[in-house]
């Protein structure tokens, strides 16, 4: 009898302990740590299982959580603490007013570290001297107005190829696919900007496909949230190493050829076309970032791949969504066509300076960024030191995720936000809106503050040129009996689930 009482007492104590333990660990945020509150989770795994069970991408889940948890909340994803910021004023405060406080990046997974050679890339480097040197070099060597002008022939060459290719595809199939063609064209421009080389379409396609695989494999996976599971995911690491090898084998020969051209003037198959100093990689050859020393082939591959990947999907996605609206709304397309021919004529060449004189084109592109931001989040940010935001504590190293899609859907900021109406940027709620978010945040397709996309104007130039040339040459129509489907899906950027296909008719 005495033994039984002791047993009951011990079991009772254990139950009380489990209850408290469960309560403590299932609460997300709040508590003594003063993190923003968030959805309750399970001990050890936090909200991870709930997210996995939804079988939808994180960006679509956040859209609903925001309604319940508001401007700032915490998600406990296994061992990873994520603070999600969704409010335009808080985002402006974090990124612009207190820019340096939130300008760092959180720790990376082992697979990401493999591809960034230990964070030696602009997008992943922590806020500090390495990031500063890499970013400054990128800006001065790749995207100053003089360099952009010097390299305009690359865009002319790539877009001429693009126009021939889409004409051929439409002739052969009766329609063409917009996204794949735009990806290939933008990728060919960026490859030439990086390596100064004109290479065959086949090689461009190989690089494009390898870099897409790199983006996919470096996207968050289960062991990133629960590192204890890493040993079970050895196969992923093996695959990542094999892919890295493939990436090096594909790009290092290009770098070696460029180096031979820069140092000895060798150019056996006349592949190198940009003058010495005009390719991005030329500037990396002599670069010695503090804390890192001279860079080698691994770093050159990482930094050039970063520029190609960062600029390809983002721009091609925007063109695809813009063309969707032009196909679905012939009035908008006609208005744009009129603007183009008023500016350069029916057969006149559209030069880079011409697209800057097309306000309706600019309005269409801005409305596309607003209605279809290529990324619904920025890249993950991190606080440089423990700090506070909205009265909550934000410890250094937690993932600060800036959810930008809500800002452009917010009816308090935009009237009829779900409508695609470029005119709003000419005379409406979009007039004077700053896409860089410096003055205030009403949209931020490129981020804002210290980590803003350093090549945002180059991205816009590629988008403007592609749309203007395609609309000048052809009338774009839906494929009969197969109207475009505007459903979204996530593939690094938020793209059309069923890629846009269109019929094109030469303008007469
Ligand atoms: C429409 C085109 C583009 C869009 C929408 C876009 C968007 C973005 C966004 C949202 C970020 C993250 C900002 C943040 O974390 O706060 C970013 C960063 C970056 N982008 Fe772009 N981008 C575009 C084109 C390009 C192009 C053409 C290049 C290169 C040639 C490029 C290179 C970069 C780099 C290197 C970073 C990292 C910056 C840093 O961490 O300091 N982007 N971009």
Tell me about the largest β-sheet: 3 strands, mixed
List low-pLDDT spans: none
Rg (C-alpha, Å): 25 Å
Which percent range describes the beta-strand content? 5-15%
Shape: globular
The structure class reads mainly alpha
User: Could you estimate the helical fraction of the residues in percent?
Assistant: 40-55%
Number of beta strands: 12
Number of helices: 18
List ligands, each type once.
Answer: protoporphyrin IX containing FE
The string of secondary-structure elements, in order, is HEEHHEEHHHHHEHHHHHHHHHEEEHEEEE
User: How many domains comprise the coordinates?
Assistant: 1
- Output the CATH topology: Cytochrome p450
Gap between N and C termini: 100 Å
Organism: Gossypium darwinii
Binding site for heme: 453
GO molecular function, one term: oxidoreductase activity, acting on paired donors, with incorporation or reduction of molecular oxygen, NAD(P)H as one donor, and incorporation of one atom of oxygen
Transmembrane segments: 5-22
């Amino acid at each position: 009898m005495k033994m039984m009482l002791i047993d009951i007492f011990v079991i009772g104590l254990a139950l009380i302990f489990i209850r408290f333990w469960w309560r403590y660990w299932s609460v997300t945020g709040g508590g003594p740590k003063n993190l923003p509150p968030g959805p309750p989770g399970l001990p050890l795994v936090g909200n991870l299982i709930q997210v996995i069970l939804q079988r939808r991408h994180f960006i679509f889940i956040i859209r609903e959580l925001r309604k319940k948890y508001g401007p700032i909340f915490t998600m406990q994803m296994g061992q990873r603490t994520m603070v999600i910021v969704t409010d335009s004023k808080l985002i402006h405060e974090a990124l612009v007013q207190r820019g340096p406080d939130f300008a760092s990046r959180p720790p990376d997974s082992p697979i990401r570290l493999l591809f960034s050679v230990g964070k030696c890339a602009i997008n992943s480097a922590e806020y500090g001297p390495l990031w500063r040197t890499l970013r400054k070099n990128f800006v001065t060597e790749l995207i100053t107005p003089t360099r952009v002008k010097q390299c305009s022939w690359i865009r002319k060459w790539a877009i001429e190829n693009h126009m021939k290719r889409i004409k051929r595809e439409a002739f052969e199939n009766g329609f063409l696919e917009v996204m794949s063609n735009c990806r290939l064209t933008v990728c060919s421009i960026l490859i030439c900007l990086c390596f100064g080389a004109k290479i065959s379409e086949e090689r461009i396609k190989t690089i494009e496909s390898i870099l897409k695989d790199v983006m996919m494999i470096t996207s968050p996976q289960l062991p990133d949230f629960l590192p204890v599971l890493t040993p079970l995911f050895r196969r992923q690491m093996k695959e990542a190493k094999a892919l890295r090898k493939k990436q090096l084998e594909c790009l290092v020969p290009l770098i070696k050829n460029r180096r031979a051209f820069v140092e000895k003037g060798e150019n056996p198959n006349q592949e190198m076309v940009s003058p010495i100093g005009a390719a991005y990689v030329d500037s990396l050859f002599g670069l010695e970032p503090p804390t890192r020393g001279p860079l080698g082939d691994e770093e050159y591959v990482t930094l050039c791949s970063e520029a190609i990947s960062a600029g390809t999907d983002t721009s091609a996605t925007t063109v695809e969504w813009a063309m969707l609206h032009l196909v679905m709304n012939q009035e908008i397309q006609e208005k744009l066509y009129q603007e183009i021919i008023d500016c350069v004529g029916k057969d006149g060449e559209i030069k880079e300076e011409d697209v800057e004189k097309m306000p309706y084109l600019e309005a269409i592109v801005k409305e596309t960024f607003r209605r279809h931001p290529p990324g619904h989040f920025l890249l993950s940010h991190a606080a440089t030191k423990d700090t506070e935001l909205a009265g909550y504590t934000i410890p250094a190293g937690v993932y600060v995720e800036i959810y930008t899609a809500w800002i452009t859907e917010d009816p308090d900021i935009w009237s009829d936000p779900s409508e695609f109406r470029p005119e709003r940027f000419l005379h409406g709620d979009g007039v004077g809106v700053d896409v860089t978010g410096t003055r205030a945040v009403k949209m931020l397709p490129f981020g804002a503050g210290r980590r803003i996309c350093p090549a945002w104007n180059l991205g816009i130039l590629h988008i403007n040129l592609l749309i203007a040339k395609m609309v000048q040459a052809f009338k774009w129509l839906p494929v009969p009996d197969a109207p475009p489907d505007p459903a979204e899906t996530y593939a690094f950027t938020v793209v059309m689930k069923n890629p846009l296909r269109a019929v094109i008719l030469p303008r007469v």
